[in-house]
Write a structure and sequence with these properties.
two-stranded antiparallel sheet, Spore Coat Polysaccharide Biosynthesis Protein SpsA, Chain A, 2 domains, 6 helices, alpha/beta
């Protein structure tokens, strides 16, 4: 089976300038994702979509392909991620004559995942029954219990009101999950015809919260550094 990993990394991040090649524990951020994808034997190719020559050079050095540069209109703050996926798939069809069997998107901003997490996502997709597999984690807040929204009168109310009265214990609230950026596994044909992931059947793989951090700000970066240090110390203690 032809499985292609796509890593999207534009150069113009405003939340944390230069984040995609900013060193995390001495390793450029994007290199973490490249290494994790390379550690999954069934992934045949790792392609980086970027508009930055600097990012492209780092990616190639780490063993990824950068066979094209992303157009400027797909590298803006408001550029839809799905458009970037489609652009890469169009390139692959043009050069290879067909789409890959499976596309696994491995965002550069989730460096604490393990190759095992990618394997689990591919396994889930291989079972069939879904056009896309996403990753989720336990949330910090539950909209049925401790998340509120402001009403037009200035008061607040629960984001989602319970059907049967008011919940007084978090444990009684329905289970909900945060969508994470650890990985997306999808059918390329579905990507090309559908406007969003949830237009099709979606399955989920749960990832521990400590491996699911999404780096967007300097604070996120600092948290990732602390978690990596904690992980490494745990490995040393176990050894």
């Amino acid at each position: 089976m032809n499985i292609v990993a796509l890593i999207c990394a534009r150069g113009g991040s405003k939340g944390l300038p230069g984040k995609n090649i900013r060193p995390l524990a001495g390793v450029p951020l994007i290199v973490w994702s490249i290494r994790q994808a390379r550690a999954v034997p069934r992934i045949g190719r790792i392609i980086v979509s970027t508009d930055s020559e600097e990012i492209a050079a780092v990616a190639r050095e780490a063993g990824a392909e950068v066979p094209f540069m992303r157009p400027a209109d797909l590298a803006q703050d408001r550029s839809p991620e799905r458009g970037v996926w489609r652009h890469a798939l169009e390139y692959l069809k043009l050069t290879d004559g067909a789409y890959p069997d499976v596309l696994i998107v491995v965002p550069a901003t989730a460096p604490l995942r393990l190759p095992y997490d990618l394997e689990r996502c591919l396994d889930e997709f291989a079972q069939g029954g879904a056009e896309t597999v996403i990753t989720v984690a336990e949330p910090h807040r539950n909209p049925y219990f401790n998340m509120v929204k402001t009403r037009t009168d200035g008061c607040v109310e629960l984001v989602i009101s319970p059907v049967n009265g008011v919940l007084t214990r978090r444990q009684d609230a329905p289970d909900v999950y945060d969508v994470t950026t650890v990985a997306y596994v999808t059918d390329p044909e579905f990507v090309m015809r559908a406007d969003n992931i949830f237009a099709g059947r979606v399955r989920a793989v749960q990832i521990p919260a400590e491996r699911a951090i999404d780096i967007d700000t300097l604070m996120d970066f600092r948290v990732a550094e602390c978690l990596l240090q904690y992980r490494n110390e745990g490995e040393c203690s176990a050894g």
